[in-house]
Amino acid sequence: MSRITYGVPTDPIDDVVAAFARGELVVLLDHPDREGEADLLLAAHSATGEKFNRLSLLARGLIAVGVTAQRLAELGVPLIEPVNCSGNWPHFAEPVDYKIGTTTGASAFDLAATARALTDLGARPEDFARPGHLQLLRENEAGLKGRMGHTEGAVSLARLAGVYPATVICEMMGPDGTMAAGEALRSIIEQNNLLVTTVQSVADTTQRHSTRA
Question: How far is residue 20 from each of residues 17, 46, 137, measured CA to CA in Å?
Answer without folding.
Answer: 5, 10, 19
